[in-house]
Design brief:
With 297 residues, the chain is mainly α. The chain contains 11 helices and no strands. Helix 3 (73-93) crosses helix 9 (159-181), helix 3 runs parallel beside helix 11 (235-296) and helix 8 (149-157) crosses helix 9 (159-181). It is globular and about 60 Å long.
């Protein structure tokens, strides 16, 4: 079976670009609306984070670079990293729910979105899907499953499966980063220390897969033998480059996230210790004043 035709890729890229652009416009409409009517304004850096996340999604699925994913495994791996590792935390940091709700027509939100979000099935599904264990398993399953050679080849040969692959990577990435970022309206239900362990465990399937691709002495995905070999790179070198890219990016991003959580955890602990010290100081001062009063009597 041949690889995807460029015509099919270009047609899907057009409507994906339009969908992403529409999402950006709705978000910006909501953001400006909040700035003009509410004291609880979403910071500019959050808006930039959300738009940057959308830009990375566009780069992964609809940009000219994305058209090379059936020619180079490295580009294919870059898509996966953009959709699972880089774009989702930026999206969640942008506080998308509040902003997008204010960007949609009010009647649509009141009559459709609001009742849907407050319905019992949606509330139950949301609470279940955002459990860290399930988020971790979903991410690992998407990562490992789509890199099984048979499924990987299917994704390159079928436009429908190709889009399903991208959608599953993005969905898994959003699920994975939910417990870490804790976007509104979620509340923190897990200690930050457990999230550091969560990030560490998440590196394991990535390390195994990337290590296998780097050190394997044969081409794991023979479909790339039919590639036109842009830049003159061999299929095996391309595979090793893809594995090294995954290994590096995942390690750095998870390390940065863990460092942020650790810093936040230590700063809160230091703040509590300062409060305790000040409380003890005030208590000792009060006791000293009482003693002085008694001595004066």
């Amino acid at each position: 079976m041949p690889l995807l035709h460029h015509g099919g890729i270009e047609s899907s890229a057009v409507w994906l670009t339009l969908s992403i652009a529409l999402t950006a416009l709705v978000y910006l409409r909501g953001w400006f609306h909040l700035r003009s009517t509410s004291t609880n304004v979403i910071s500019a850096w959050r808006a930039i984070s959300f738009l940057l996340g959308l830009l990375l999604i566009w780069a992964a699925v609809a940009s000219p670079i994305a058209a090379l994913d059936h020619e180079l495994l490295t580009v294919h791996m870059l898509q996966h990293l953009l959709l699972m590792t880089l774009a989702p935390p930026l999206i969640w940091l942008g506080a998308p729910f509040m902003t997008l709700l204010h960007g949609l027509p009010r009647q649509f939100v009141d009559k459709v979105i609001g009742p849907l979000l407050h319905s019992a099935p949606v509330q139950t599904a949301g609470g279940t899907l955002t459990q860290p264990a399930l988020c971790w398993l979903a991410t690992a399953a998407a990562l490992v499953g789509w890199h099984i050679p048979a499924l990987f080849t299917l994704g390159l040969q079928s436009e429908g499966w190709h889009l399903a692959e991208h959608a599953s990577f993005l969905a898994a990435g959003l699920l994975f980063w939910w417990p870490v970022v804790q976007p509104w309206p979620s509340v923190s239900r897990w200690p930050e220390l457990s999230m550091i362990l969560y990030l560490f465990l998440a590196t394991l399937p990535c390390d195994i897969l990337s290590g296998f691709l780097v050190f394997c002495d044969r081409v794991v995905y023979p479909v790339y033998f039919a590639s036109s070999r842009p830049f003159g790179i061999s299929a095996l070198d391309d595979q090793q480059c893809a594995g090294a890219l995954m290994w590096t990016v995942v390690t750095v991003v998870y390390l940065v996230a863990a460092a942020v959580l650790t810093t936040r955890l230590l700063s809160r602990q230091s703040f509590r210790e300062d409060e305790l010290a000040q409380s003890e100081l005030r208590g000792s001062q009060v006791a000293q004043k009482v003693l002085q009063s008694l001595e004066a009597l």
